[in-house]
Amino acid sequence: DLSARLGLCRTRVVLDVRSGIFHRRVRPLSDLLGRALIRVALAYARRLFSGVTTISPMLRERLAREHGIPPGRIGIWQSGVSLGRFDPSRVSAGRPAGLAGKFVVMHHGTLGLDRGLPETVEAMRLLRPSYPDIVLYLLGDGSEEGRLRTLVRTHGLDNVLFTPTVDHEQVPVHIQGCDVGILPLAPTPVMRSSSPLKLMEYLAMEKPVIVSRIEAFSDVLEGYPGAVFLDDVTPQAIARGIEVAFRQRETLARAAVAGRRLVKERFTWERQAEAFWRFLAGGSQE
């Protein structure tokens, strides 16, 4: 930064801010120290750096409001997807073993905190008596996997299936075999200001989605007809959302074709790289 200011190089220095700045630990002293360091870093960047980059419109607005950074100096580069890899026309149709004839609700990625997965398993318990053909398909692993498996065993659920993490090249095959993706993220600051990669992958594969009503999704899905928004992240609300998706499955499947067009216009990795480069070259996205 100093070399650039002295004209010794053409480097542009920016501070990249992720939603992890909202994480809270269980130790108050660590939280206090962490928040202080974040404020110092942002104050330094505001005064001396060429700009700040971040991952979502919500986080950009919060940085401007709470830390006094002019919005024009905050660049956004969100998650994206490879349309070549996630292309339903190139992926063979089929179902995972044992799911033929079922309505498959899929979640893939980290089985972690604040993703609404225990509530989704409880929702499957509520749905099982009336909708035995609805199955929850969990692809991945993470810190909540043990808890989720315990819930499945405790309730004797045969409508929740686990599959271990696969190579990223294989993810489109699994998505192709599902009917709808589900992302019931909790309305925490971290999740609200995120840019979920999984959402882009479902859209690219022309799959409808069931999502919580938070900015991370509404900013992307405004006007998109293939989404079912959850009223809340409770077992009852999630069960209602899955029921709506099941009852409207044919309509949603037709509407979901628009997802690939949406991604092509705004959320390919190429689009994100172009936006990022424009910001680095000019210091503004306005």
Notable traits:
286 residues; alpha/beta; three-stranded parallel β-sheet; 9 strands; globular
In words, what does this structure look like?
The chain has helices at residues 2-5, 28-48, 57-67, 117-127, 145-155, 171-176, 189-192, 197-204, 215-221, 235-247, 249-255, 257-266, 269-282, and strands at residues 14-17, 51-54, 74-76, 103-108, 134-139, 160-163, 180-183, 209-212, 227-230. It is an alpha/beta fold and 286 residues long. The strands form two sheets. It has a six-stranded parallel sheet with strand order 6-5-4-7-8-9, sandwiched between helices. Strands 1-2-3 form a three-stranded parallel sheet, with helices on both faces. The protein is globular and about 70 Å long.
At a glance:
The chain has 286 residues and is α/β, with parallel strands linked by helices. Helices cover 44% and strands 14% of the residues. The protein has helices spanning 2-5, 28-48, 57-67, 117-127, 145-155, 171-176, 189-192, 197-204, 215-221, 235-247, 249-255, 257-266, 269-282; strands spanning 14-17, 51-54, 74-76, 103-108, 134-139, 160-163, 180-183, 209-212, 227-230.
Secondary structure layout plus pairing:
Blueprint: H1 2-5, E1 14-17, H2 28-48, E2 51-54, H3 57-67, E3 74-76, E4 103-108, H4 117-127, E5 134-139, H5 145-155, E6 160-163, H6 171-176, E7 180-183, H7 189-192, H8 197-204, E8 209-212, H9 215-221, E9 227-230, H10 235-247, H11 249-255, H12 257-266, H13 269-282
Parallel strand pairs: 1-2, 2-3, 4-5, 4-7, 5-6, 7-8, 8-9
